[in-house]
């Protein structure tokens, strides 16, 4: 079976948006292009970074901010990363404890009918103000990594609603698998995390989903395929094969009729080890926001493929760089151009897969103006 | 010679932590703290202010440490590293053993190296012990199942123990299976057929 196939070692974190990697392997798209895709399940983003840096992995599923952070040496163990393929857009949500949800409803009325970010943000701000007056401790929110869109989206939304994420709340990192437990024990009041963790929290009746990050920016890149630059330079044929295999997997995944099979694949123990029906929620965009409520359809909740979703755009990287600067992860001057050419490598995507001529997406962020 | 190096060990595995703890103590490092769980990790680390943090490589809470050292301006900021980044053999050994370390910048690399080397060797010793225990358990179970199968054969065919064992061995050789596997199928079959 694996005769004459060349191994490519790719790390991933068990989240719904590792789907294209799993599909590439399980549906044989990798093998069609001479690749034995050797997928390594990792427990932390730090591990992903370190193992890529040390050469234990050729590349990995990475948070959209990671290739930039690596190319600008914002983290220890940074290596030059080429990120030419978007593995997923959005798919994260913000979940709060029942207690906080009740407080928010008391301030802002029913929130789940419209799922309006402005209204929800105003309710959260009112709760924070009230807590200040009554001398209660700051609310605690968790996200998954400093250089994650979870961090940037949560901060962007809060700041836009008049909440200073560095002053008005306590923001910290908790690994996805521990979010539920921390919410249940009252250690945190809310979190921003990828699927299936929000839906799992709802299924266990631990919290309520109050927003999806797709509402903040409908096209936000969430995960990129990040490859070691020196590996790409040494293995151009293999790299081309990998890109083509991923593009095939993306085409296959774009068919709505394949959603159930994707959920089945991801439910296997070597991937998410979570019931397929929970995984299907994110794939279909039909999420249950609160236990007992009927599922609601959230537009653009998550995009794995289709409509140019896999093609990175430097402008998307610019937004992330702006957030890094805004929240003091980086100080000017920095070589944005150099970082962007590698970290949102549209050129490389185009060379291998061709660019779709179309209207420039631009940044369509929810707007308070 | 600074002996007041503060070391923090984060490990969910109590037995392994104890083995390492004792090793670090024995080499004159008295300032060792151990955290089993990572509740309130940031507060606890601020309070301790360690020079070296040793973490099981497969502990997801490494991402929590990343955040702390990324944004915190108020403490010395340890950085994730694998001893001496140019020493690929050490790095390989650390990764294989599942050891990662966060080290305060400016700490003499030979001091760190000896601590990490000690951690790697103790982690490996623990893994070996763990393996041996598991193997001993399996061997004991195999032993039991073979005895059971021999008993069944002796009863069914009215033969002696040596002969029963020879039968098992022959079947194993013919099928390219382990004796314990053959024994296991005999026991299962006999349970099914009563």
Structural summary, described in words:
The complex is a heterodimer of chains A (369) and B (194). The N and C termini of chain A lie far apart (58 Å). In chain A, strands 2-1-3-10-4-13 form a 6-stranded mixed sheet, with helices on both faces. In chain A, strands 7-6-8-5-9 form a 5-stranded mixed sheet, sandwiched between helices. In chain A, strands 11-12 form a two-stranded antiparallel ribbon. Chain A is an alpha/beta fold and 369 residues long. Chain A is 42% helix and 19% strand. The longest helix of chain A has 18 residues, at 236-253. With 194 residues, chain B is an alpha/beta fold. Chain B has a 5-stranded mixed sheet, sandwiched between helices. In chain B, helix 5 crosses helix 7 (179-193). The mean pLDDT of chain B is 84. At the A-B interface, helix 3 of A face helix 3 and strand 4 of B.
Key terms for this structure?
heterodimer; A: 369 residues; alpha/beta; 6-stranded mixed sheet; 5-stranded mixed sheet; 16 helices; 13 strands; B: 194 residues; 7 helices; 62% helix; 12% strand; elongated
Q: Biggest sheet of chain A, in brief?
A: 6 strands, mixed
The strand count of chain B comes to 5
From the N-terminal CA to the C-terminal CA of chain B, the straight-line distance is 73 Å
Give the percentage of residues in beta strands of chain B: 5-15%
Q: Count the DSSP helices of chain B.
A: 7
Mean pLDDT of chain A: 94
**Strand sequence of the main sheet of chain B, in spatial order?**
2-1-3-5-4
Q: Flag low-confidence runs of chain A.
A: none
Helix content of chain B: 55-70%
Radius of gyration of chain B: 26 Å
Sequence-ordered SSE layout with sheet pairings:
The complex is a heterodimer of chains A (369) and B (194).
Chain A lengths: L5 E7 L6 H8 L2 H4 L2 E7 L3 H9 L5 E5 L2 H6 L9 E10 L1 E6 H11 L8 H17 L5 E5 L5 H12 L8 E5 L2 H9 L5 E5 L2 H7 L3 E6 L8 E8 H6 L1 H18 L5 H9 L8 H9 L1 E2 L8 E2 L4 E2 L10 H13 L9 H8 L2 H8 L16
Parallel strand pairs in A: 1-2, 1-3, 6-7, 6-8
Antiparallel strand pairs in A: 3-10, 4-10, 4-13, 5-8, 5-9, 11-12
Helix pairs in contact in A: 1-11, 5-6, 8-9, 12-13, 14-15
Chain B lengths: L6 E4 L3 H13 L5 E4 L5 H8 L3 E5 L5 H10 L6 E4 L6 H10 L1 E6 L4 H49 L3 H15 L3 H15 L1
Helix pairs in contact in B: 1-5, 4-5, 5-6, 5-7, 6-7
